[in-house]
Design brief:
Length: 393
């Protein structure tokens, strides 16, 4: 008689297709077709980008709030965020207010976008009484060095003649940074001194140069090669002004180039907050989901993400779960909508990598399949365990 297993399913979302909650449920449904007596626990995760609030809410103990803010193109957006039952903690996702997914592909032009909406969410959380704020900055559309956020929080950007660079109804956008000569921080919201800000960030890029915000992330946000050069110069001048105002040098700090320089802009204000730190996004969500406690009860862990490739090595969810599982002595399987050799290498010795797809197909075809391919993948894994083929049974 076979023994039942405790299976922990802890995937990221399949970006552009399914949330981590949907992925986890589909894998669980498939697994239970093969092994209905196993006990399954779900822990949907994220890496600080789009889907972070959904994953954290699924862990329980949070309530949704909704605030109308300015989107990256200054159009109104209804952005959801989380608040704790006592109102002291909040979780905000930059993608909800200033995300690339809010802009149709044909209209993506990061030079003209602003991060103001994310600042408005931070202000809304502070207004609601939150003093412990987690901000996930993945999935942004912007390259404005957090100038939009800082403006909402009370900073003033000025040109060489001392005039405001941007004031309502004109938002601070990335291209306007080329006119910034000085920044006045005297008007910053004094409540920031009470706020503990954790910035969930999964990249280590500096602000400027060939590995910086404009060069690496600008093209995927609609920047042409010429735009990249203009943005990099604009961010350099803005960095001079902000570092001078804040008396901090942060342009080379790992993560300062995240989200089009949001990491840089907020790091420069670190002295104005009670505490401020950049932390790996997956670590934030794993802690919120109590992944460590759930691993103590698990015989097997299944994680996964839309694509397991070379980028998996840079702090993505599958790697974070695989490392945690290995540390806990629990076998791990990582499923990917697409799997490349670089991803397999990144997880070597930590997890068995299994593709979801069953035949050659385009990304569009795979995404159109919905949950059914994941359910079939979960069922295949369950049957392999039933056969005792080295997956922990």
């Amino acid at each position: 008689m076979r023994r039942s297993l405790d299976v922990l399913i802890a995937p990221d979302s399949f970006k552009g297709s399914l949330t981590s909650v949907e992925v986890a449920r589909a894998l669980a449904d498939g697994w239970q077709r093969a092994r209905p007596d196993d006990r399954i626990e779900l822990a949907p995760l994220a890496d600080g980008g789009q889907g972070t609030t959904v994953a954290i809410e699924a862990a329980g103990g949070w309530a949704w709030r909704e605030t109308e803010v300015h989107g990256p193109d200054f159009a109104p957006v209804q952005a959801r965020w989380l608040i704790s039952p006592d109102g002291r903690a909040a979780v905000i996702e930059m993608a909800a207010a200033s995300g690339l997914s809010l802009i149709p592909v044909a209209r993506r032009r990061t030079t003209e976008f602003t991060s103001m909406g994310t600042g408005e969410l931070i202000r809304a959380a502070i207004d609601a009484g939150a003093r412990q704020i987690t901000l996930g900055i993945g999935g942004s559309a912007t390259s404005d060095g957090a100038s939009g956020i800082l403006t909402v929080l009370g900073a003033s950007l000025r040109d060489a003649d001392g005039r405001p660079v941007a004031e309502p109804p004109n938002p601070p956008v990335a291209i306007a940074l080329s006119r910034v000569a000085s920044i006045d921080l005297s008007g910053l919201d004094p409540r920031l001194a009470e706020v503990e800000l954790r910035i969930a960030c999964d990249v280590t890029n500096p602000l400027l140069g060939p590995h910086g915000a404009a060069a690496v992330y600008g093209p995927q946000k609609g920047a042409s090669p010429d735009d990249v050069e203009v943005l990099d110069r604009a961010l350099a001048g803005y960095a001079d002004a902000l570092e001078g105002a804040a008396s901090r040098r942060e342009r080379e700090t790992p993560g300062s180039g995240a989200a089009g320089g949001v990491g840089f802009g907020l790091l420069c204000l670190a002295d104005r907050f009670r505490t401020l730190e950049l932390v790996p996004g997956v670590d934030v969500v794993m802690a919120a989901a109590d992944l460590g406690g759930k691993l103590e009860r698990a015989d097997l862990v299944i994680t996964g993400e839309g694509r397991i490739d070379a980028q998996t090595a840079f702090g993505k969810t599958a790697l974070g779960v695989a490392r945690a599982a290995t540390a806990a002595g629990v076998p791990c399987v990582a499923v990917g909508g697409g799997v490349e050799p670089g991803g397999t290498e990144a997880l070597a010795g930590l997890a068995i990598v299994v593709p979801v797809v069953e035949r050659p197909m385009t990304v569009e075809e795979a995404m159109a399949g919905g949950t059914e391919p994941l359910e079939r993948c979960g069922e295949r894994l369950g049957r392999l365990v039933g056969l005792g083929l080295g997956l922990g049974a």
